[in-house]
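Before drawing any conclusions, I looked closely at one protein's amino acid sequence and its backbone structure tokens, quoted below without any editing.
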Amino acid sequence: MGKRSGDDVTKRAQWAGAAGMRRNVEVKARLRERAAARGAAERRGGPGRALAHTDTFFRVPRGRLKLRRTPDGRGELIFYERPDTTGPKLSRFTITPTDDPDGLEAVLGQALGVLGVVRKERLLFLVGQTRVHLDSVEGLGDFLELEVVLTEEQSVEDGERVAHELMKELGVEEEDLISGAYLDLLLAKGESGL
């Protein structure tokens, strides 16, 4: 093979940067007082937006891979990696949209196998750089999720500080924190959502 030109190397570096994983600091907790958390989120972020999601998880050797379906017939394929620990934690993720979630689910199901399905109603609030989710998860109940979206310049510690401040405002206690994904909680109950 010949030498790569400077332009080829630059293009590859740009592509790698564009295709790189995004980062956020996440918190997931059981929600004790939905009305109080909603009031606090509305005071900080205005009215929430109602969303409905059906997430199909596939068997993968590392991280998690899910296909998110929305009522408009579209979907998003989401791969993410984060530790299964309580409290604020770094999550790295990649998302790609699809207009054919049925076809994509069929192919991925055949190739990888389906691990389970999570259905939820979500209220989304945008509070600064944080996505605040109030989730009602079928078979599990009510939860709060924070996603502090990090800029390239921000450290994980910066995101953790933001998360801890919002946890206080929203009434999240240490004993409310959970690790893992909603699917893990369903599987622990002996349910897969299929």
